[in-house]
Amino acid sequence: MDHKSFLASLTPAQCRELTETSDRAGLLHLVLHLGAIALLAAFVLARVPFWPVLMLPQGILLVFLFTLLHEASHSTPFRTRWLNVAAAHLSGYVILLPPRWFRYFHFAHHRFTQVPGKDPELASPKPDTWAQYLLYVSGLPVWIDHLGTILRHAAGRCGDEFVPEAKRSMVRNEAWAMIGVYLVLLTGSIALGSTALVFIWLIPMALGQPFLRLYLLAEHGRCAHVANMLENSRTTLTNAAVRQLAWNMPYHAEHHSYPSVPFHKLPVLHRLAAEHLKVTEKGYSSFHARYAPAINGGVAAAK
């Protein structure tokens, strides 16, 4: 059964239940995520014992706001529209990823998942050598790409096919707005003689980015270039803590099959789709234990 047949098998009542959004569920999840970030930031600023160690979990929480941006690009974490827009902008500005532009990028990824030449995620090939793998995991290429994207858009050089011509001025304005916010933060920090943002934002994000890279590689790495969303995307059967951190996006094949399902309903969708999933992994450690040796010819490629 492919994803279209699976969706056709759902009853109208099931579809209504699965696609019901909720401000309460979204706000609760958001408060927990942002609350943990604020708490760790307070500990770092207070220089509690071993405070430098806390910058790692702080960074992981920060970079995983990407999964909120991803969810908000579908307008599903909240029922209220402005909450989705605000969540997308908050998370995008924190991780240096233009939220409006990312929405166009991500919709093209969903429309052409794993289609070479059309899926924008395939524009940057998955690592096939140890050097590429280590560079990818370092996070350095993604920071260069994010900053380059903002500067390129600010210069009016957005030539991405997935961005409608009529919307490119908005993408340019978005880039200038982001630059403006960052300049205000920089100026304020210099004026106050404060290095707080360095220790609660910039260094933690650099430390946390490798964990996001390892997580994201499992979504489609070594998946087939086919149209079936139950086969071209991987669901990772990880623990509850990782699912909480990633807004349930480890249920990735389910998300691609039915992207209008909000994060808090994905466990329900998973139970319905479980027997039809083609590509699953029991955890991220398990995935990389098979993926990494495979790039050196040590074991069979992860499937």
From TrEMBL:
UniProt keyword Aminoacyl-tRNA synthetase, yes or no: no
Keywords carried by this UniProt record: Membrane, Transmembrane, Transmembrane helix
InterPro entries on file: FA_desaturase_dom
Domain Fatty acid desaturase: 50-278
Pfam families: FA_desaturase
PANTHER family cross-referenced by the UniProt entry: SPHINGOLIPID DELTA 4 DESATURASE/C-4 HYDROXYLASE PROTEIN DES2, SPHINGOLIPID DELTA(4)-DESATURASE DES1
Name of this chain's protein: Fatty acid desaturase
